[in-house]
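REVIEWER CHECKLIST
Item 1: Sequence provided? yes
Item 2: Single chain? yes
Item 3: Sequence as submitted:
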Amino acid sequence: MRRKSVPSVKQTLPPAKREALMAALHALFAAYGKRKHPLDYRNRYQLLVMVVLSAQTTDERINALAPAFFRRFPSMKKLAAATVEDVVPLIASVRGCIKKATWLTTIARTVGTDDAIPTTLEDLITLPGIGRKSANVIIRESGGTAEGIIVDLHVDRVVPRIGITDSDKPDAIERALMDLIPRRDWNKAGMSLSYLGREICRPTDPNCGLCPLRLVCSYATRRNSDS
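Item 4: Structure as written out by the authors:
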């Protein structure tokens, strides 16, 4: 995944900073690493559908409409028999509902059954509406072996603030995290950083005093020096 022209985070971060950062991250993983994703799914089929629907839409909204959707389409096989027109009324409150209905019906016809849902990142991202972030969520929540790290809008905000990378591009952020964090912790890393962003490192007025990364965070250091 790493381009040769991109310096390694392990090379650009001073050793003392990297060691302190990893110690703080392990504390974060201990606090958040086992938490389930906020989407209230019951099986892998529901997880995939809800992940596709949740792009640019709150998890709360998807959780609210999910029961009615899955009563109508309880399986991939049932969804495969549906038309876009069948699906849209059930997801009308979701941003891009027509496009997402098209993606879901296409996925269902492509996959066919719940048991045939792909298990690898390479195969998942061939499905419409599923990029690296969505695939990483599906793999992580399904208990699969991590092939990447979840970078949602919360991780996208938190990681540059900490000072791991100065990029705000999701692919560069994921690359930096994968370079820094041992692979055994990749499934913990994304959701831990996401929950940190949801609960503490908010877009405005973050609660730096409660953050387990505050002593190694560039943003917290700047805030303290300005106060």
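Item 5: Key structural point noted by reviewer: DSSP finds 13 helices and no strands in the chain.
Item 6: Recommendation: ____
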